[in-house]
Design goal:
single chain, mainly alpha, 3 helices, about 70% helix
């Protein structure tokens, strides 16, 4: 499992009152949170790629 996949899973499962369940969160929300949680430059780069793809996907909808 990649670092990015782990970050997305953690973001989806992280407790918090302001968070929606993962099933109700958009790919854009999950990608943005994974980017914010990434620590290493490699993880940030991978998360940035997914975030850009999520933004482009939102525009196409």
């Amino acid at each position: 499992m990649s670092v990015l996949q782990k970050a997305v899973e953690r973001a989806a499962q992280a407790p918090g009152e302001d968070k929606k369940p993962a099933a109700r969160r958009s790919p854009l929300e999950l990608a943005a949170e994974a980017f914010a949680m990434a620590k290493s430059p490699e993880a940030k780069a991978a998360a940035a790629k997914v975030l850009v793809e999520a933004v482009l996907g939102e525009r196409q909808l």
